[in-house]
Each structure stands twice: as C-alpha cells, then as structure tokens.
Design brief:
By secondary structure, the chain is α/β, with parallel strands linked by helices. It folds into two domains: 79 residues, 2-Layer Sandwich (Nucleotidyltransferase, domain 5), CATH 3.30.420; 144 residues, Nucleotidyltransferase, domain 5 (2-Layer Sandwich), CATH 3.30.420. Helix 4 crosses helix 8. The radius of gyration is 19 Å and the shape is globular. It starts with a strand and ends with a helix. Catalyzes the phosphorylation of pantothenate (Pan), the first step in CoA biosynthesis.
Length: 253
C-alpha cells in the first residue's frame, strides 16, 4: 500500500493506493493543520500496511507540518516528488525546476491515460492549463487566478462589491450586483479556458483530449464541450505514477 499526499494551497488530499488502485481519498484544509485531522485519517493500522509515502507540494509551510507529523508517526520515510523522486518526463520549459510539481504530476497522469498529446485544465486555487506532446513531454502552459481567488480579489480591491458564491448564472445579463459579479467571473473564466485550449490546440497542430481536474472542475466542465474527461484525483494518480515509474527503473532486469 502507498500513501500519495497532494499538498496544495487550499487543501491537502490524501490518496491510499493498493495494487495501483486508488482505494480511498481524504481531504483536510491546508490552512488549518491540526494533528487530530491526520490522526483520524492516518491511523496506526494504515501506517502498519504502508510501503511508501509520496508527497507532492506547492505549499512549503503546509509541507513542513505534514513532514513533521509523518516523522513522528510514520515508520516509512516520506519521499518528495521532484526531490527524492525525480520527475519521469521531459520538461520543455526555460526553467524546469520552477514548474509547479502539481502541474507536472498532472501531466504524467494525463499522458499515462491518453498515450497521446493532451491538455490538462486544473481548476483550483489557481487555474493552470498545460500541454503534453506526443512523446509525453511537458510543453508548459498558463497560470491564471482561480474562481475563488478572482471573487476575493474583486471584493477586497473594491469598496462596495460583495463577496459572492459561485454557480452557473441563469443569464449573462446580471440584474443586480451579485448576479453581475457571478456572471462576470463564471463566464469570463469559461471563455478564458475555451480560448486558451483553442490557441494551444493550434500550436500543437492537433485537437488533443482535454482532462479537467481540481476543486472547480465539476462547475466548469459542463461548459467546456472539448473536455473529454473529468478526473478529480488526477494529481494523486500522477504522484503514484511518478513513484511507480521510478521504482520500476531501479529494479534489476
């Protein structure tokens, strides 16, 4: 059994893999790390059966807390993607070491599923849209504010605009301030994703499958007809795959 831990800016996702199958998942908030949260999920019985603990993090502060907890309770030394575990794919960017680990493990999982060029939309705290070529190399992509971040920025940067929740608007024309904000953020985000996918497809000279993941995937995907698959736990899959590929490369023939 392996534990895959995805440490994000908003949430920490924990996946328990057995025989390459994601058996269960758990989520705790990155900003409210308490030992009791992990104690309820990562029990002594889980640690007893665990062969590997693999981390992917874009949040150094939360990562330090998780590693401290694992050091006290896990008999298995955690391995970090991009450090103890190399990224098992070519990264065709100017500074590969600066690319977010979450984007890379998403790309690994997407190519494993498609075996073809692909585009990954990760709609979380930030929205990233990345491309993978026919050889499984990471091409780069875009980073934009996520829906929640855009709503908060609009609220905090203005004197009178309220903080609203997000949902699909009934109409494009907002008839009050809340509706106008909701429509602007929702349809603006949908339009941005559509446009970027079209432009990436043109540069890639193909119409690759699109995989959508992240916390807002279920809200956005119905408005993206090019989205062939919604995979909420793509990042956990990629963490597990990066570990599996590296372990396989170390086995004697």
């Amino acid at each position: 059994m392996q534990l895959a831990i995805d440490i994000g800016n908003t949430n920490i996702h924990i996946g328990i893999f057995e025989e390459d199958i994601l058996r269960s998942t758990h989520t705790v908030g990155s900003g409210s790390l308490h030992q009791t949260n992990f104690t309820k999920i990562l029990t002594p019985a889980i640690f007893f059966k665990t062969q590997a603990v693999i981390l992917a993090s874009v949040n150094p502060q939360a990562e330090a807390c998780v590693i401290e907890y694992l050091g006290k309770h896990s008999p298995v030394q955690p391995c970090r993607i991009g450090k103890e575990i190399p990224i098992p794919m070519p990264i065709l960017t100017e500074s590969p070491e600066m690319v977010g680990i979450d984007r890379l493990v998403n790309a690994i999982a997407a190519f494993e599923r498609t075996k073809n060029p692909a585009i990954v939309v990760d709609a979380g705290t930030a929205i990233t849209i990345d491309g993978i070529n026919e050889k499984g190399a990471f091409l780069g992509g875009i980073i934009a504010p996520g829906i929640g971040m855009s709503l908060k920025a609009l609220h905090h940067a203005t004197a009178l605009l309220p903080l609203v929740s997000i949902s699909k608007p009934k109409n494009v024309f907002g008839k009050n301030t809340e509706e106008a904000i909701r429509s602007g953020i929702f349809w603006g985000t949908v339009g941005m994703i559509h446009q970027v996918i079209d432009m990436m497809s043109n540069e890639m000279k193909c119409q690759p499958p699109v995989i959508v993941t992240g916390g807002d995937a279920s809200v956005l995907a119905p408005e993206l007809p090019v989205a062939t698959t919604v995979l909420p736990y793509l990042t956990l899959e990629g963490i597990h795959l990066a570990y599996k590929i590296n372990i396989a490369s170390l086995l004697p023939y």
